């Protein structure tokens, strides 16, 4: 069992509480729903799970779910901001394989593959809505992917 480090906020130690949950669902509000859907299906490899109406689509990839909602009136998303979403891969070489695939698909990289101090390896790219994505090999999690 891996020891968990307490969270320290403003000098106060927060209780450990239950183990963290795994992120399995993200929802994005996008202006060009069709372009963003094509990107996640054709480039990332997700599949359409459910399309309740022309303004909403739910995508699935392994155990992850991504909801895409059309911005009302063509406006940009509301006040909330998403820094980035991470797609975890099984090994560090997978990051490089994704770089090759993305560049071959004409998708520019925001940051080329890089090995970080903790042994993680990642790259960054933007989807058509401008959302920053990270493709990440993360040693504590990735080996569980097989």
Total beta strands: 10
Tell me the number of structural domains: 2
Q: Tell me the name of the CATH homologous superfamily of the largest domain.
A: 2,3-Dihydroxybiphenyl 1,2-Dioxygenase, domain 1
Indicate the structural class.
Answer: alpha+beta
Helix content class: 10-25%
* Element string (H = helix, E = strand): EEEHEEEEHEEE
Which segments are poorly predicted (pLDDT under 50) over 5 or more consecutive residues? 77-81
As for the CATH topology of the largest domain, it is: 2,3-Dihydroxybiphenyl 1,2-Dioxygenase, domain 1
Look at the structure and give the CATH class of the largest domain: Alpha Beta
Strand content: 35-45%
CATH architecture of the largest domain: Roll
In spatial order, strands of the major sheet run 3-6-5-4
What is the CA-atom radius of gyration, in angstroms?
Answer: 17 Å
What general form does the structure show? globular
Largest sheet: 4 strands, mixed
What this model shows, in words?
- The longest helix has 13 residues, at 92-104.
- A 4-stranded mixed beta sheet has the order 3-6-5-4, covered by helices on one side. Strands 7-10-9-8 form a 4-stranded mixed beta sheet, covered by helices on one side. A two-stranded antiparallel sheet has the order 1-2.
- The radius of gyration is 17 Å and the shape is globular.
- It has helices at residues 33-43, 92-104, and strands at residues 8-9, 12-13, 25-30, 47-53, 56-61, 64-70, 85-88, 109-115, 121-126, 132-137.
- The chain is 16% helix and 36% strand.
- The protein is built from 2 helices and 10 strands, in the order βββαββββαβββ.
- Mean pLDDT is 80; it is low at 77-81.
- By secondary structure, the protein is α+β, with helices and mostly antiparallel strands.
- A hairpin with a 2-residue loop joins β1 and β2.
- It has 2 domains: 23-72, 2,3-Dihydroxybiphenyl 1,2-Dioxygenase, domain 1; 82-146, 2,3-Dihydroxybiphenyl 1,2-Dioxygenase, domain 1 (Roll).
């Amino acid at each position: 069992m891996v020891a968990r480090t307490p969270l320290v906020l403003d000098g106060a130690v927060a209780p450990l509480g239950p183990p963290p949950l795994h992120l399995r669902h993200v929802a994005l509000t996008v202006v060009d729903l069709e372009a963003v859907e094509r990107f996640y299906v054709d480039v990332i490899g997700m599949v359409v799970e459910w399309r309740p109406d022309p303004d909403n689509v739910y995508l699935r990839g392994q155990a992850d779910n991504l909801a895409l909602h059309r911005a009302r009136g063509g406006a940009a998303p509301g006040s909330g901001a998403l820094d980035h979403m991470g797609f975890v891969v099984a090994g560090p070489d997978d990051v490089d394989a994704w770089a090759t695939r993305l560049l071959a698909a004409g998708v520019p990289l925001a940051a080329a593959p890089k090995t970080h101090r903790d042994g993680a390896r990642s790259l960054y790219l933007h989807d058509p809505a401008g959302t920053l994505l990270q493709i990440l090999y993360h040693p504590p999690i990735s080996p569980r992917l097989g």
